[in-house]
Every structure is written in structure tokens, then in C-alpha cells.
Design brief:
single chain; 35% helix; 9-stranded mixed beta sheet; alpha/beta; Rossmann fold
Amino acid sequence: MKIVHISAECYPAAKAGGLADVAGSLPKYQKLLKHSTMVIMPHYYTNFRSKNEFKSVFEGIARLGSVDYDYHYQIFKLQNTELGFDLYSIDIPGLFDRENIYSYKDDTERFITFQIAALNWIKTFKKLPDIVHCHDQQTGLIPFFMTKVEAYDKLKEIPTVFTIHNGEYQGQFTFDRQYLLPGFNSYFSGQIEWHGFINPVAAAIKNAWSVTTVSPNYMDEIGFSMAGLEKLLQYEKGKSKGILNGIDTEVWDPSTDGMLQKTFSISTVEAGKKYNKKWLCKEFNLDPAKPLFTFIGRLVKEKGADLLPEAIYNMMSKYPGEQNVLILGSGDAPVQQALWDLEPQFKGNYCSYIGYNEKLSHIIYAGADFLLMPSRVEPCGLNQLYALRYGTVPIVRRTGGLTDTVTDIGDGGFGICHDQASAWDITHSIERAKSFFNKKKAFKENRKLIMQIDHSWNRAAEEYINLYKSLK
């Protein structure tokens, strides 16, 4: 099959969250299954762009609906073949010649133009795709354009799949901006409307041939809580499916990971983790003899990061000097400040690194004993999968994909789970984790067990291929 993925992010070209990891891995593993795969994304002016060679393969014009303004665009192909699939990026001067991916006032115009340019190019292909796979709200209008806009009649028989990576972000805008869209019969206006707004996610759910989410449990959850789209999802349940994300086990492999201070395998896990932990503790003035709890990610409410300062304070005060905590991330300023403020009080057992550091994150997965994920919302979650791969026990709130991937030790599993997004639940889970850590033999056996759990993309890639075939 010829598969085209369209996404606003793709690792390593541009990343803001888990969407990039999926768009950078799923096509690779589908190609290993002998399918033709490509990713189309915007051509952001990032370090990746400047450090890699791109070749122009197409030029065209993208017109914003009835607006008398044409955007000239170029399609560039990445010449480096190491990603394992063909990466194409659309350069639209005036819209994407910027460093950041999102958070601009004209994001609506930017991503509508991107979708138009992508389809304008696709319809010139000598061999049309067998599947167009769209990811999140920035591509949500594509299934509608392909089936209801006359300019794309050539594409209307191509099956489309729309994956919801995070249903909280829907990209809705008012109908007085409908003029931005390509012309279509007003009879179809209801196909893009939800609660009085043009809603790209609603449009995709209505018009895509199939709708997927990044874990089975998240699919169940958003049928009851998805920022207003619950009834629509329930109505379209027949064409919806949750497929659990995987991880790129070539990138995330502790036996070959060049970012680590010392690589290790299942047979050398104890020595390997001890070495990386010792480096971390020296770097951040922590005690290597104590269990090391970590958090890696965005310091936002969605991830439960606002609960961490209180939970950490409670634990450190109640059990002084009995545990280490290391935070890596950035996000909401008040949360960052609250985490900073803890450092003078618990020097020698607590430290926070505010910012993004890919290499440090790998070392933390390798050296930590436990990973905290008290998320309020977690459609799939990849951090817990990385942690398992590196022999680090995840401590998670039961939600979304965390429910699908982590089973509590009390239920015959290998992780620590709690139900509420509260500082008390986090504190109680840390207490349970410390008790588990002190059972040295069981803890060491658990490390080897979790490193063998298969969360590679092989399984998910095959599941998506089977879904594609069912649509033909």
C-alpha cells in the first residue's frame, strides 16, 4: 500500500509532544512491513531544517477560499534517508518561516493553508495514495475537503483515517471565517459544524472513513469526556477504534543508547542503572543510596505537575533524607517557581531542571528507580513505556493509556497505580514504591521483567495496516 501521513509534527524534524513521536515512528515500522510510507508536514525554520539537506520537488499555489490571496509554496524532500521513510515538508513563506510550531495568532490560517497545499500536491501524484492518515486537529479538515470539496473530487475515493492524539485541542473557529476554506456546497456546512463553530476535529470524526485514538482506554474515556464532542463520538462509535501507541525500540534501547553514561542490557541492568544513577546524583547533588523518583515532561495541569510541589513537600517533610526527587521539564510559570522554591529546603535530596534536554531525559530513564506520571489526561503516554524499557518502575494515575500499559504490583503487575489526581495519592504511591524498593530481590526481578515487555511499534503498525485493509 501507498500510505501518506499528514501531521503538524514529526520527530526529529519538529516536536512539541507525543504526536511527533508517533508521526516519526509509525511510518518507519509500516515501511518495514513492505509498504510505501511518507510523511507530509510544515517546513518550520528549526535547527533540523538548517542542519539537513532538503531538495525542492514541487511548487504550487494554495488559495485561501474566497480570499483574494494566493500563497506560493514549495514541497521539500529530506535527502537524509536515516528516518526510515520519506519526509516531505511544505514551505509556505509568511506562515511557516518561523521557529515555533504553534501558538501564533494566525494558526487557523497557517494550518488551513497547509492542508490545502498538501492536497493540491497529492492530487498531482501519478499513483494516488491507498490511504491518507491524518493526525490531530491541524489536519482535521482534510477528510472533509477530500469528500465534499469539488476541487478534490479526484481524491474522494481514497480512504482516510483520523487519529486523535489529544481530544482537548480541537482548533475550532467561528463561521465568519468560513471564507478561508475552499468552496463547497453550503448543503454540507453541517459536516464541519459543532455547537455553532467550525470544528476541525468534529469535521474529521464525521468525514473520515475511520477514527482512531492512541489507546483503547482513551477511546472509551473520550466517549464520555472530550470537551463537548462526546455525543458525536458515541454516534460514530462503529467506525472508531483505540490502537495503543508503541515506541521506537531502536532509538529507545538501553543496550545501544549513545546518550547514556553507560549502556546496559537485561543481564547487566543492575550495574548499568547504578552507574547512570551515580552520575545523576553527582550532577544534581543527590544521594545515590536512596531511591530516585523522577518526573519528565511538561509542567502543566494536564500532566498533574501542579500537584508535585505539595506531594514532594509532604514526602520530604515526613521522611527527611529517605528519598531523592529529580524533576525535568518546563511549562506553567507558577509550577516552575513552586518547584524551584523547594530546592533550598531539601538540598541534597531534591533538584529540578527547568527546560528541555533530550540527552538528560535518556540518562534519567536509565538511572532512576521510579517515574512519576500523575496525569489528569494521558491519551496514551510514552514516558511510561520508555521507563519500562530502561528498567524504571512507573508510578501512574489510572487514566487513558496509562491504564492500558501499567498494572499495579498489588494486582499481580509491575507498577504503582493510583486513582485520584491528588497530592495525597501521589504521596501514598511514593510510600508504596519505597516499600517495594526495599524488597531488594523482588525489585531486581521486576526490573528484568519490565524490560522485556514488548511495546514496540511492530504490533501497532500491523494493527493499523489491518485497519487500512478493512477500508478498501
